[in-house]
Amino acid sequence: MRVLQWRIAAAVGVVAVVVACAGTPVVGVARGVGDIDAGTVAGLPVDNNGPSGPKQGAEDANLTVENADGGEMDRLAVNALSDIYDYWTIHMRADFGEQFEPVRRLASYDSDGKAITLCGTSTKGLVNAFYCGQDDSVAWDRGVLLPMLDKQFGPMSVVAVLAHEMGHAVQYRLGEKSNISQSTPTIIKEQQADCYAGGFFRYVADKKAKHFDINTGQGLNHVLATMFFIRDPAGASATKQGAHGLAFDRVFAFQAGFVEGPKRCARMDADEINGRIVEKERNETEIKGSDDGDVDLADAEVRSLLKASLKQAFGDTGNHPEITYDGARCASGGSTPPVSYCADNNTVAVDTKAVQKIATPPKRGQEPGVDGAGIGDFAAFAEIASRYALSIQNTVGAPLNGEKAGLRTACLTGAWARFTDADGGRKLRLAIGDLDEAVAELLQDNSLIAADVQGKQIPSGFARVEAFRVGYFEGDKGCAGRFS
Fold it and tell me: What is the pTM of this model?
């Protein structure tokens, strides 16, 4: 986040138990991806105990791959592509009336090894996986990219990347039926490919794939977290050639495909995507903070501006909580470190050291929130905002326990995030990349953003992200309609 200038205060709707925030949703643009149920993912029960990864005992597929070494990564890629072929053999005909044709060429390479030429480009140092329309090929870096994804997010992240690339092959085959032409902006192609990958993962979650399983709890959450790792850099414009979208956008597209299937993906066009892509180019004059927009939670001025943003965003409830920074313990119990809402004295108690750890951005190559890595300042501020939102709910008599409270809290936190995205006066301002930090934090196993007063988290990562999205785009009306 950045320290910039204040804009306007918004009022709280007491009956709705939610905040009215700055920013107006675009009329007619689909913001959500279906009904939000805390315990399900698109109608499937959330399951953290089921298998997630390659199926034990499944016979390896047999596809012709150029330059393959027969190692673990190539076997993983071939099995993934075989299942993806099976999926599209069914859905190209069922959804589009077309016969699916496998790509003409599959190729493996090691970006650190002997270079070959693919799609007119040398593979030396090419840490990537890609579809090339020139020769209708899919290629992957078995030496660096796939092992890195497998290590940090598990084998299903590799499957997700290849499902995305095959999404481009599907676009190439469908053409106008997928709203695609030579002049189509890159961001539309990429959002559709993420969406097609989501459709394939629903097929896996439905136990239809021969080689892979995915559980709808942590397994699917880790696939969504992959979007944070492979997103465009913060500050990249969605209008430029080569743009893929940031994690906030890519997760939406994946979810849309998972929930609604390939026909939904093919409907994605410029009007829809331009209406919901949230990261625009920004030419802000930064007053305080590092070059990437991160600010220090230990700074007294930052704390003051954070509190001011919460008070302004949540309006005149008449009973705003105090925020303390000397530990997350509630005297009467019920603490939820690193931040707690203590209802007995209406205080948000913060463990500064622990929250600052969350606020520290991950180093290059680190998975956010794993093995001691942080996420970024917005993730930390959102943790505090979520507990502050509980105080607002408590003031108007809303229940603070249970799944509805967790969803409402995520929604209110998203509404506050939208308020910080307003211009004017001296304030904490949402910086480029901050919403991606929200996605990464929401998908952590111990995140408070979508948790009730006891820290009980919403089981479905899909529901957590979608509730936050409702608040960001729709403010009080959206939260009231879904979670009152």
Answer: 0.86
